Amino acid sequence: MAKSNSPFQTQVRKNKSANQLTTNDTNLGPTYKAIPTTIADRMVRRIALTTGIPAMLGIAVFISNYILVSREIIKIPPGLTLLMSGLCFFLSLIGLSYGIISTSWGKLPGTTLGFEQVLININRLRGKE
């Protein structure tokens, strides 16, 4: 098994004499700690952007289409409104995953869009790093 540089994973073992937990025994398997606060804050900020913007666009589609149709400016089929808003909400759902996967899980914050972190973090999740 390759050694992981992920800040979330540590392995523990019981000290047979004192029933205390110590590190680096593979007999019990991996035990995972909580996500560090700085990394969780980065994830929350990125998730807020990548889900918030498309969700707000989805709501804006409903409101703008209602105004346009109710004032008889343009006749918009209801199916088109549903399709456009559904696409925005689907992008919001994808943004949730992208917000987590594109966040730097290291000490340094990474770039604004985080494209370079995606493959690194996917490999971490698969256990290949």
TrEMBL record:
Positions of region (Disordered): 1-29
Gene it is expressed from: MYN1_Chr_188
Domain of life: Eukaryota
Protein's name according to its UniProt entry: Uncharacterized protein
InterPro entries tied to this protein: PAM68-like
Transmembrane regions: 47-68, 80-101
Keyword tags: Membrane, Plastid, Transmembrane, Transmembrane helix
Pfam families named among the record's database cross-references: DUF3464 (PF11947)
Tagged with keyword Membrane: yes
